[in-house]
């Protein structure tokens, strides 16, 4: 209110006051209003610097870990809330780990998130939630991969349980329809085709195991796939019976041209019928999503802008407030009672 009254003397105050109101109402009902930029600026002023330093070091040594944080944030936020429920190991207190779900197949590098959390605990014990550590790591990871830097708010709390039974229901599958995908994203706060198309651009980096591909390659190469690309993928995945087992190490890169760049090559590939997953390729064919695919393929800056916006929205899905969760000491286990 104070800002509004003072606006008569300063032309800068009114717009910022409006921004304030806009962003608190856009956030989800419930805990949405608890998030803000720089939530730890007093309780742990170096928190965001520490994440950034850790990400820079880890990225330098294990570049794939930046890729993993993006996928991990997506899976965590699709199931109820961005509450680090994904990070819990199976335990009596938390229940069966979400990581054990078939939908989490291929997820990796969780130990590097533990390293970030350990650095935060050394600086400010019991202060920075695992959910925020993941959101900030994904933010800095996206930037390290040449993507945009999103203005991620903080203040999430961590869940006291894992929701194994909800993972297959709420995280889309590789062969889902566009309708199913749009419904799932909308339920997580990302309403509309543009944001969904932008988020799938994360498949510009990383890899897919043959288990998730052979259905498009055998007995015949999917008619919707560029035949030359099909032949290449059959070389990567030489047999039809890939197993749902990460020890079955055969995989294909999401983007052969720029595999470690979060860029719009993904959309160019889709338009050339070189989508990897069925769900990727469908974005180029469905009339609701195709126009955004074409526009992102043509304009990397537009992709980056929409990716950052959608990542922020997704990262603010239903955050837990102070009384709804805790700050876990170890991201893998709920705090002892
Ligand atoms: C319709 C939605 C989505 C589906 C069905 C989906 C499915 C998949 C599948 C099946 C894989 C390959 C797993 C493997 O075989 O190892 C994968 C990888 C990946 N996904 Fe998605 N995904 C979706 C959306 C997203 C979103 C929104 C993000 C992030 C913003 C994301 C980030 C990633 C990343 C980075 C990888 C590579 C992981 C690695 O190399 O370890 N995905 N996704
Ligand atoms: C999608 O793929 C899974 C295997 O990953 C399979 O069990 C399921 O039947 C497929 N669904 C459809 C609709 O084809």
TrEMBL record:
Heme b binds at residue 203. Coiled coil: none annotated. Substrate binds at residue 172. The keyword Transcription regulation does not apply. Ca(2+) 2 binds at residues 255, 258, 263. One of its GO terms (molecular function) is metal ion binding. Its cofactor is Ca(2+); heme b. It is an enzyme of class 1 (oxidoreductase). Residues 34-335 form the Plant heme peroxidase family profile domain. One of its GO terms (cellular component) is extracellular region. It catalyses: 2 a phenolic donor + H2O2 = 2 a phenolic radical donor + 2 H2O. Its EC number is 1.11.1.7. The record marks 71 as: Transition state stabilizer. Belongs to the peroxidase family. Classical plant (class III) peroxidase subfamily. Removal of H(2)O(2), oxidation of toxic reductants, biosynthesis and degradation of lignin, suberization, auxin catabolism, response to environmental stresses such as wounding, pathogen attack and oxidative stress. These functions might be dependent on each isozyme/isoform in each plant tissue. This is Peroxidase.
């Amino acid at each position: 209110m104070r800002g509004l009254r003072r606006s008569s003397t300063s032309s800068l105050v009114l717009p910022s006051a409006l921004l304030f109101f806009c962003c608190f109402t856009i956030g989800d009902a419930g805990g949405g209003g608890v998030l803000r930029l720089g939530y730890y600026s007093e309780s742990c002023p170096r928190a965001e610097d520490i994440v950034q330093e850790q990400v820079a070091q880890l990225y330098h040594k294990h570049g794939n870990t930046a890729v993993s944080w993006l996928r991990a944030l997506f899976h965590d936020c699709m199931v109820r809330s961005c509450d680090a429920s994904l990070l819990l190991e199976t335990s009596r207190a938390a229940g069966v780990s979400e990581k054990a779900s078939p939908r989490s197949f291929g997820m990796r590098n969780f130990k590097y998130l533990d390293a970030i959390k350990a650095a935060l605990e050394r600086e400010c014990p019991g202060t920075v939630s695992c959910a925020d550590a993941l959101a900030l790591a994904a933010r800095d990871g996206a930037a390290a991969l040449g993507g945009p830097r999103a203005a991620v708010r903080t203040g999430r709390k961590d869940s006291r349980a894992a929701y194994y039974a909800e993972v297959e229901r709420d995280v889309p599958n590789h062969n889902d329809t566009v309708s199913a995908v749009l419904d799932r994203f909308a339920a997580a706060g990302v309403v509309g085709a543009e944001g969904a198309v932008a988020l799938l651009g994360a498949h510009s980096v990383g890899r897919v195991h043959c288990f998730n591909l052979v259905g498009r390659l055998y007995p015949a190469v999917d008619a919707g796939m560029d035949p030359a690309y099909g032949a290449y993928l059959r070389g990567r995945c030489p047999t039809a019976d890939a197993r749902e087992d990460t020890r079955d190490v055969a995989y294909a890169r999401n983007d052969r041209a720029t595999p470690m760049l979060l860029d719009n090559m993904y959309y160019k590939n889709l338009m050339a019928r070189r989508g990897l997953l069925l769900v990727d390729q469908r974005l180029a064919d469905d009339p609701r999503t195709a126009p955004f695919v074409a526009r992102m393929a043509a304009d990397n800056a537009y992709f980056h802008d929409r990716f950052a916006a959608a990542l922020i929205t997704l990262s603010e899905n239903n955050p837990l407030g102070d009384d709804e969760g805790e700050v876990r000491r170890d991201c893998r286990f709920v705090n002892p009672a």
